[in-house]
Amino acid sequence: MAVKINIRRIFFIALWCTVGAGVLVLLVAAIGYRNNKVCKGYRIDIAGGAGTLFIDKKQILDLLTSAGAGKVQNKPTATFDLRRMEAVLEKNVWIKDAQLFFDNNGILRVNVTEREPVARVFTQEGNSFYIDSSGVQLPLSDKLTTRLPVFTGYPAPRIRIRGEDSLLTVQIRQLSAFIRSDSFWMAQIAQLDITPEKNFELVPTIGNHLIGFGDGSDYQAKFHRLFVFYKQVMSQTGFDKYSRVDVAYAGQVIGTRKGSEGSRQDSIQGMRNIRAMIHAAQQLQSDTIHQRDMRPLERPVLTEQTLTNYDLIPAGGDSARGAAQPRPRAIMPNNKPHK
Fold first, then answer.
1. Which of 170, 238, 278, 321 is buried deepest, with most CB atoms within 10 A?
2. Once rounded to an integer, what is the mean pLDDT over residues 99-109?
3. Cα-only R_g, the chain
């Protein structure tokens, strides 16, 4: 009985030694194959940028060369330090992520994700740069430009994503994303000015009025109220009647009237343009500005006589904020001020 147990033990030991030797042989062979394998070429793929590339394949190849890759083709794959090459690529401000590997055909695959600018920012000192969706500051490009929402009056020389002004940076990104997602607002908003109080004033493409927006909170509801005011008031009365439209207060649209010194022809053309933009936006997106628990201004049909039922300040009256005298308003739900 003891002899049988010893034979069985010897058999299993011999079997495992054979398996271990085989694995070792395969491992040595694989290492030798890898060391003798050469790079047969490279392939660079760039993702992101929405079709506008701020860094091209030649620049990426130059970065790889500077990382010690030298001439890529026919170079032994074992000599490539892929991690170091990835780190060098990611030091470039336009590269968000880089992944390098060799495929089964010996091709060096370089997959790069480019940072996509979402807004152009001008500082109070006049400097200008892009920011991406993460708030990373990007330089302007001599080769390419892209159409983005423009923000002016940023209070710091560089973008801040932590500490002071970090909330302002977040609001810039949110407002920019909303505007870029809507063809109507992308066409109508020429720029967004940042006030010393860190609120926003919007400058429209059509019309000579200024839009008081308050801070960046509750921005979807504010754009909704502004759209309704455009559709039901300004598209019918023209753009010479108001010097300022304020949507900073929850549930309200406050318009400040001005004199009738503007051109009648310009007003008519502006009405036509805004109606065309509204129609185009509604065709592309059936309910782009739908907001839960919101309702439009109270009178769907407007005339010169019914305008006083809206949130209007007579010519020469108080400003849109902090007026001392009572004025007629079209109150919408949630009558709560947003600063």
1. 238
2. 91
3. 32
Identify each DSSP E strand in the chain by its residue range: 41-47, 95-102, 107-114, 117-123, 128-132, 137-138, 150-154, 189-194, 200-204, 210-214, 242-246, 254-257, 312-313
Burial (CB count within 10 angstroms: exposed 0-12, middle 13-18, buried 19+), residue 159: buried
Burial class of residue 40, CB neighbours in 10 A (0-12, 13-18, 19+): middle
Residue from 118, 155, 151, 152 nearest 137 by CA: 118
What's the pLDDT tens digit per position in 231-256? 888 878 776 788 999 999 988 999 88
Mean pLDDT, rounded, for 163-191: 94
Q: From 76, 113, 117, 81, select the one nearest 98 (Cα to Cα).
A: 113
Residue 195 DSSP label = P
Q: What residue spans define the domains of the chain? A: 41-114, 182-313
Contact call for residues 337 and 248 (beta carbons, < 8 A) = yes
Whole-angstrom CA distances from 151 to 18, 80, 329, 338 are 71, 44, 31, 20
Q: Is the whole model's pTM more than 0.70, yes or no? A: no
- Contact criterion met (CB below 8 Å) for 307 and 255: no
pLDDT interval class at 314 (50, 70, 90): very low
Identify the CATH assignment for 41-114 out of 3.50.30.30, 3.10.20.310, 3.40.50.2000, 3.30.413.10: 3.10.20.310
What pLDDT digit, counting tens, does each position of 10-21 carry? 766 777 777 677
Report the distance separating Cα 25 and Cα 11, nearest Å. Answer: 21
Q: Are 216 and 173 in contact (CB under 8 A)?
A: no
Q: Which of 101, 104, 86, 108 is nearest to 39 (CA)?
A: 108
pLDDT in tens, 110-124: 999 999 999 999 999
- Higher pLDDT: 191 or 69? It is 191
What is the distance between the alpha carbons of residues 147 and 138, in angstroms, rounded to a whole number?
A: 15
